[in-house]
């Protein structure tokens, strides 16, 4: 599933090709996504110019005229830039054609993603209103993690992946951040000290920033807005490496299931 670095990589990749451009045509091949494609999409978009793209958690925000489109990539979706004459492939569901011939093309084999109108403001749309802070913003720090975790028995990894605590720290990056911070993902969130939460917050920022620089993590479906894979998978310390030797100490990595998600960790380095 595309996580925050993959969505941010997509935003940066497609922005130069569509920001400030007028939309000339909208093609909807498959309207039945997780949320049906709005019936008024083409009528509203054609003739409007695309504003500056934004991102909130794993949602892409596309201002167009007086409204804003909300894109979500779901489990297998991608937004790529094509050119006039590039034939659509299977599962290419929506095209936005802009004035210079660039095409923003939404591809989603599983159709768990969507494109829809933002409902009101970021604080009013029910899909966004209760989200926690961005992990790379000043609003996210170890003090917040410590405060929200008091008396919580839930394991620290699913606690960190809770979007009400902080957005965008999904399975891959939570695993990697906990490894860098030296924290066992099974440990109860309420039993971790303020000092260790400061290390965890810094580790999460470090991992996410590095993943964005590397273009995200390509494990199966993800490519950037220009069709390039992400290269952060080459730097993974624990995710997907169960039974392989730890890159730090050489001990075999272990696999646990937390919150119905696979969690790989080093029993020696993560206490």
TrEMBL record:
- Cofactor note, please? Binds 1 zinc ion per subunit.
Q: Which superkingdom does the taxonomy of this entry point to?
A: Bacteria
Ranges where the Formamidopyrimidine-DNA glycosylase catalytic domain occurs: 2-113
Please give one Pfam family short name.
H2TH
* Catalytic reaction annotation: Hydrolysis of DNA containing ring-opened 7-methylguanine residues, releasing 2,6-diamino-4-hydroxy-5-(N-methyl)formamidopyrimidine; 2'-deoxyribonucleotide-(2'-deoxyribose 5'-phosphate)-2'-deoxyribonucleotide-DNA = a 3'-end 2'-deoxyribonucleotide-(2,3-dehydro-2,3-deoxyribose 5'-phosphate)-DNA + a 5'-end 5'-phospho-2'-deoxyribonucleoside-DNA + H(+)
Keywords associated with the record: DNA damage, DNA repair, DNA-binding, Glycosidase, Hydrolase, Lyase, Metal-binding, Multifunctional enzyme, Zinc, Zinc-finger
Per its Swiss-Prot or TrEMBL entry, what cofactor is needed? Zn(2+)
Q: Which InterPro entries match?
A: DNA_glyclase_Znf_dom_DNA_BS, FPG_cat, FPG_Glyclase, FPG_N, H2TH_FPG, Ribosomal_uS13-like_H2TH, Znf_DNA_glyclase/AP_lyase, Znf_FPG/IleRS
Q: Where's the active site on this chain?
A: 2 (schiff-base intermediate with dna), 3 (proton donor), 58 (proton donor), 261 (proton donor)
The record's GO molecular-function terms, alphabetically, read:
class I DNA-(apurinic or apyrimidinic site) endonuclease activity; oxidized purine nucleobase lesion DNA N-glycosylase activity
The protein's role, per its UniProt record: Involved in base excision repair of DNA damaged by oxidation or by mutagenic agents. Acts as DNA glycosylase that recognizes and removes damaged bases. Has a preference for oxidized purines, such as 7,8-dihydro-8-oxoguanine (8-oxoG). Has AP (apurinic/apyrimidinic) lyase activity and introduces nicks in the DNA strand. Cleaves the DNA backbone by beta-delta elimination to generate a single-strand break at the site of the removed base with both 3'- and 5'-phosphates.
Under the subunit heading, UniProt states:
Monomer.
Q: What is this protein called?
A: Formamidopyrimidine-DNA glycosylase
């Amino acid at each position: 599933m595309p996580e925050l670095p993959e969505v941010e990589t997509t935003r940066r990749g497609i922005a130069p090709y569509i920001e400030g451009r007028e939309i000339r045509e909208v093609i909807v091949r498959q309207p039945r996504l997780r949320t049906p494609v709005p019936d008024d999409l083409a009528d509203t978009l054609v003739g409007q110019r695309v504003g500056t793209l934004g991102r909130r958690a794993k949602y892409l925000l596309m201002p167009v005229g007086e409204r804003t489109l909300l894109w979500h990539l779901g489990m297998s979706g991608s937004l790529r830039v094509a050119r006039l004459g590039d034939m659509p492939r299977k599962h290419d569901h929506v095209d936005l054609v802009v004035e210079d011939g660039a095409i923003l093309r939404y591809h989603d084999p599983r159709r768990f993603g969507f494109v829809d109108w933002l409902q009101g403001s970021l604080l009013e749309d029910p899909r966004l209103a209760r989200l926690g802070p961005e992990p790379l913003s000043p609003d996210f720090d170890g003090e917040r993690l410590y405060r929200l975790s008091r008396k919580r028995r839930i394991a620290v990894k699913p606690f960190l992946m809770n979007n009400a605590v902080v957005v965008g720290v999904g399975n891959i990056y939570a695993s990697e951040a906990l490894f860098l911070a030296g924290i066992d993902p099974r440990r109860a969130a309420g039993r971790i000290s303020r000092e260790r939460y400061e290390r965890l917050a810094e580790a999460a920022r470090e991992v996410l920033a590095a993943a964005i620089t590397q273009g995200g993590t390509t494990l199966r479906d993800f490519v950037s807005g220009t069709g390039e894979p992400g290269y952060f998978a080459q730097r993974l310390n624990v995710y997907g490496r169960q039974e392989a030797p730890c890159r730090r100490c050489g001990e075999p990595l272990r696999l646990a299931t937390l919150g119905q998600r696979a969690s790989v960790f080093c029993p020696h380095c993560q206490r």
